[in-house]
Design brief:
Elements: E1 6-10, H1 13-25, E2 30-34, E3 50-54, H2 62-78, E4 83-87, H3 100-111, E5 116-119, E6 127-130, E7 133-136, E8 139-140, H4 159-164, E9 171-174, H5 176-180, H6 183-195, E10 200-203, H7 208-218, E11 223-226, H8 234-240, E12 259-264, H9 269-280, E13 285-287, H10 290-294, H11 299-308, E14 316-319, H12 324-334, H13 336-356, E15 359-365, H14 367-376, E16 381-389, E17 392-397, E18 403-407, H15 416-422
Parallel strand pairs: 1-3, 1-4, 2-3, 4-11, 5-10, 5-11, 9-10, 12-14, 12-15, 13-14, 15-18
Antiparallel strand pairs: 2-16, 6-7, 7-8, 16-17, 17-18
This protein binds adenosine-5'-diphosphate.
């Protein structure tokens, strides 16, 4: 039984599994809670080195995001956490109104913290920060696909300027020259920035070594604001301070047996290729048609009957994944929201039926889809296990014989489904 040291507040669900996977990989046992853990859950139940609270606060109104984040902070403090991490998207998804700035400001105030760094870098997935500018692969954020995002169009890659628009706290730059020079140089630069009145510094990082040095230098700050990358360096920094015994077994999950299945409600490019690979390999797949759902066809029951006849022979895939033209057609006919809700509801029903039919290892593709499935299965806590691909770990529904791999749309290699299922028994 350990008391958690680190409390992470994640602004979306698959972002929470991403950061949790990083912590586990680096040796911290980690528990993920879906939403703010209920106060009556008791602190004894949060038995891990780190607790990650998965919120849905990235694009909610600012007031709601702040209130949710403060509620999460309060529970994490009550559970014994002493260091805090506000996990944001590696493309710094936000608007001039928020939510990163206002949430960071509120958390700092609640913690009495007068300084923090903000660093979305995730070099392994092509996100790097240099001179305060965020790059996605070889292009500036503002030249990447993120400039057209429907909710958070990122039209400026200068994160100092972008974050400054969101907060009254002074934003500055912790530039790469200091980061590359190591922890003492970083500490010196932070002291200088503080003296200038800077309260949040965008930190440059272009590779994992930079993130390691930032972790070593900043592990004593009460709050860090970052993508998942910075989490890789923290366990070693806590261990060096005698705050943690990094454990190679942090990632161990039990074998659960039972049947295996894949559910996909994601239509992102990476998922499309993964579904095509599964089918191309001659594996069994059942397609849910959104338009048929709109007509009231019992697609979930049909999918379950189909799956039940095959589960004993190996894993099956049930998916609504389709190309952009078909998605657009369904959205035009049914409305975007209704089409999404119908598909999510159907896949959640299939998940419950598959579980009743003995499925104990389940891969789910899609952020929103994962949220719907986890909710339908009544999962409130996940113990985080080993990584499958960068940003996607296996997890276990706490205390249950049920393993879940929850994949955000654009994550994972082309053979992700088979690879994931090949890793667990
Ligand atoms: P991603 O992580 O790739 O964004 P999500 O699950 O978060 O995936 O979002 C995909 C959304 O698209 C969900 O709301 C899902 O229900 C919806 N959807 C899936 N398939 C279809 C389809 N064939 N037609 C219309 N909407 C769909």
């Amino acid at each position: 039984m350990s008391r958690p040291l680190l409390g992470v507040i994640a602004d979306d669900f698959t972002g929470a599994t991403d950061v949790a996977g990083m912590l586990v990989q680096a040796g911290m046992s980690t528990l993920l809670t879906v939403g703010v853990p209920a106060p009556d859950a008791g602190t004894a139940a949060l038995d891990a080195d780190a607790v990650v609270v998965a919120l849905k606060s990235r694009t909610t109104p600012v007031d709601e995001a702040v209130a949710q984040s403060l509620a999460a902070l309060e529970r994490l403090r009550a559970a014994g956490c002493e260091r805090f991490y506000f996990k944001v998207c590696s493309t710094f998804d936000s608007t001039p109104r928020g939510n990163i700035g206002p949430v960071a400001e509120a958390l700092m105030q609640a913690l009495g913290a007068d300084f923090t760094i903000a660093c979305p870098a995730f070099p392994e997935n092509g996100r790097s920060v240099y001179r305060g500018h965020l790059f996605v692969g070889d292009v500036l954020l503002s030249d990447s696909g993120m400039k057209d995002h429907p909710l958070t169009p990122m039209t400026d890659a200068n994160l100092v300027r972008w974050l400054q628009a969101q907060t009254s706290l002074r934003v500055g730059l912790l530039a790469h020259a200091s980061v590359a020079a190591g922890a003492p140089a970083i500490a010196e630069r932070i002291a200088a920035l503080r003296a200038q009145g800077v309260r949040i510094a965008i930190a440059d990082a272009i590779d994992n070594a930079d993130l390691g040095r930032l972790g070593a230098a900043c592990a004593d700050l009460p709050l860090l604001v970052a993508g998942s990358g910075l989490a890789l360096g923290l366990p070693a920094a806590y261990a060096a301070r005698g705050r943690l015994r990094a454990d190679a077994r942090a990632a161990a999950l039990p074998a659960v047996g039972g049947h295996a299945a894949v559910l996909s409600g994601s239509c992102s490019t990476a998922t499309l290729a993964q579904v095509q690979r599964w089918i191309g390999d001659g594996r069994p797949a059942f397609r849910i048609d959104a338009l048929a759902l709109g007509l009231g066809q019992p697609a979930a029951a049909e999918a379950l009957a189909w799956a039940q006849a095959r589960l004993a022979d190996g894993p099956v895939l049930v998916h609504a994944t389709t190309d952009p033209d078909h998605v657009r057609a369904a959205q035009q006919q049914l409305g975007t929201e209704r089409a999404g809700a119908l598909v999510e509801h159907c896949l959640a029903e299939v998940a419950v039926g598959l579980h009743q039919a003995g499925v104990r290892r389940l891969v789910v593709a899609g952020g929103e889809t994962s949220g719907a499935v986890v909710q339908a299965l009544g999962v409130q806590r996940l113990r985080v296990g080993p990584p499958i691909d960068p940003g996607v770990p296996w997890t276990q529904a706490e205390g249950r014989d049920l393993l879940l791999a929850l994949k955000s749309g654009n994550f994972g290699g082309v053979d992700f489904f088979a690879k994931a299922l090949g890793q667990v028994a």
